[in-house]
Design goal:
With 173 residues, the chain is α+β, with helices and mostly antiparallel strands. The protein has 5 helices and 8 strands, in the order H-H-H-H-E-E-E-E-E-E-E-H-E. It has an 8-stranded antiparallel sheet. The radius of gyration is 18 Å and the shape is globular. The two termini are 27 Å apart.
Length: 173
């Protein structure tokens, strides 16, 4: 959740850092000034940085909207997951939210924070990192767009049970 909060804080709060309880400061600290000064060029030129990191082709191969839609989850039959984009975006990174539930072995309704970005080292491939901790799962679990849904790697618990292929959420709409 920290990475989602940091991204949202930088984008929404204009790079201002909140005061830390119990720490007395006289104006801006050197650390605060350096953090803001160091992040400002990245925020100001995020698209140029994205081109350097991922290549200009990454933008042409789609964007975060590829994940928008409704999915099912074979691990929780009967449930759905709806992914929507939030307005917070820096370069190719965009926050999203997942509203789901109703499947076997899961709460009737839940909301999960997520972040969508290009997959590092995989030109043209997109990934979504989801914080499943509100429903008792892993904090930062990453799945990859595979053309018609989201493919997740197997968790250690799945491997123990013999599932080495992971899970896939097929997109239904």
């Amino acid at each position: 959740l920290e990475m989602f909060a940091l991204l949202e804080m930088i984008a929404v709060a204009g790079l201002s850092l909140p005061p830390t309880p119990g720490i007395r400061t006289l104006g801006a600290t050197r650390r605060c000034v350096l953090a803001v000064a160091g992040a400002t060029p990245l925020a100001a030129y995020a698209d140029d940085v994205a081109d350097l990191l991922y290549g200009a082709k990454a933008k042409a191969d789609g964007d975060a909207s590829v994940f928008v839609g409704t999915y099912t989850d074979p691990m929780h039959p009967g449930g759905t997951r709806a992914i929507a984009l939030k307005e917070t975006k820096i370069g190719p990174y965009q926050l999203a939210r997942i509203v789901g539930g109703g499947g076997e072995g899961e709460p009737p309704l839940y909301e999960l924070p997520a972040m969508i970005s290009p997959a590092p080292g995989k030109r043209g491939q997109w990934q979504i990192t989801i914080d499943f901790s509100p429903k008792g799962g892993p904090k930062d679990f990453t799945g990859y767009w595979d053309g018609d849904g989201i493919r997740f790697p197997p968790t250690p618990r799945q491997v123990e049970r013999g599932n080495t292929s992971g899970n896939k959420w097929p997109k239904t709409s």
